[in-house]
Amino acid sequence: MENRLQQTKMDYKQQPVLHFSSREKQKVLRKIEYNDTSVRKKHLLPRVMTVSLMFVITIIGFTYLNENYWHMAIFNQGNNGTLPHVIDKKTEKENYFTVIQESEGEFVTFDHANVKFGDKIGDFTVTNTQKVGQQTVIQLEGFASIRGDLFTDYQKVWYKPASIGTLPIAEADFGRPIFFQFDERSVKSLANSLHFQLLDMNNERSDGNVNTESFKDYSIRINKIQYKISEKGSEIQFSILDKLVINDTIELSGRLQSVYKEYANTLDETLLAGLQPFEVFQLYMHNISIGDLETEYGLLYKEHYPDKETYFSDPQWKPTETMIENGRQLYLEMKELDHFVIQQLDDDEVVIYFTMNGEERHFRLLKDQTTGVWKIPLVPMQ
Asked: Looking at residue 52, what is its pLDDT?
């Protein structure tokens, strides 16, 4: 083959070809010299159609990755449990997760693989367990109070606890992302309490963006939990206790008048056992209206006050005539109110909200750990 190419080259040089220019002649010689014998392939599709097809394939691939980024991102965030901004199909939203490490403290835990109906887990009782696809779904009822940061994008509401407290946690969830959210009724209740407007899930925002609003250090009281556990992580849905609204005055009912009279005579703590926080509040307000210091001391939260002898002998503690008169005037003003909102912050603390003289005020009560009776702390009203 090589000899043939060399012979062809020599023949070409010797034979003058009048219709070839010098430039064309050199071009042909280079082709022969480098053995360029390749055959040009014919394209099945025109070049324009090929480019168009590649463009379409690229768009489809990008869309697939974009839609699945959320699922990949959920379980690949950093140790702080907070994801960066994630681009959704139509909106941009910031997602918050909690990662709990077993070394961070003591927790109420359970083995989700062996839990069954009726099991007691801390302050909660298992009311149902079932397998739904790849998830184990556990229903619990009880009571827990936790604090943390609450977030809303005006369509959903979620939570990032600062501490777990007595909330049951599956043993498998340590070191994994947990998403805390609320059931539909609780979301509506939170929207009313925190004064934000929920948007229709089917309505798109005109600007295509999601603004996230946060409520820092917000306490919630939980009475039901739906715990969904999968291999990748867990989702915990809370049902929260609503604030209690009382449309009544602070004046004592006939029953409470009898309780107060007997308690003033005996200071028997069992008479107050079982009374609701608002009822103890009524007893206290009635007491300051008549200036009964002995009974008032009985209603106080003793961990905030000295012993009885010191209280009545020390000028720094003993109520003055001015303080007693101010108490009477306060009662007369509050007697005109007939709307109170009660929120139990946790097992041992309640706040009663009301509006007086155009200003929102609140009154605190604490539960005595020994007797279980609601008492009046130091500086109860603000």
From this structure: 59
Give the model's pLDDT for residue 65: 43
The answer to whether the pTM exceeds 0.85 is: no
Among residues 258, 251, 347, 331, which one has the least CA distance to residue 289?
331
Contact 299, 376 (CB under 8 A): yes
Question: Tens of pLDDT along 117-129?
Answer: 999 999 899 999 9
Q: Give yes or no for a contact between 268 and 253, defined as CB atoms under 8 angstroms apart.
A: no
φ and ψ at residue 131, rounded to 5 degrees: -105, 125
Q: How many CB atoms lie within 10 A of CB 303?
A: 12
Q: Is the pLDDT score of 300 beyond 90?
A: yes
Q: Write the DSSP string, 348-377.
A: TEEEEEEEETTEEEEEEEEE-TTT--EEB-
CA 240, CA 226: separation in Å to the nearest integer?
12
Which residues, in sequence order, are CB contacts of 143 under 8 Å at separation 6+?
123, 124, 221, 222, 223, 347
The answer to whether 155 and 190 are in contact (CB under 8 A) is no
Spatial distance between the Cα atoms of 278 and 268, rounded to a whole number of angstroms: 19
Angstrom distances, CA of residue 18 to CA of 7, 14, 15? 21, 12, 9
Nearest-10 Cα torsion for 43, 44, 49, 54 = -90
User: Rounded to an integer, what is the distance from CA 341 to the centroid of its chain?
Assistant: 23
The count of other CB atoms within 10 Å of the CB of residue 68 is 10
d(CA 96, CA 74): 10
Q: How far is residue 25 from each of residues 19, 28, 29, 37, measured CA to CA in Å?
A: 10, 5, 6, 17
Would you state the structure tokens that stand for residue 212, as one six-digit string? Answer: 């996230």
| 67-96 pLDDT per residue, tens | 443 333 333 333 333 322 232 333 333 467
Question: How much of the chain exceeds pLDDT 90, in percent?
Answer: 45
- Local structure of 250: helix, strand or coil: coil
* Helix/strand/coil for 334: helix
Backbone angles phi, psi at 272, to 5 degrees: -95, -10
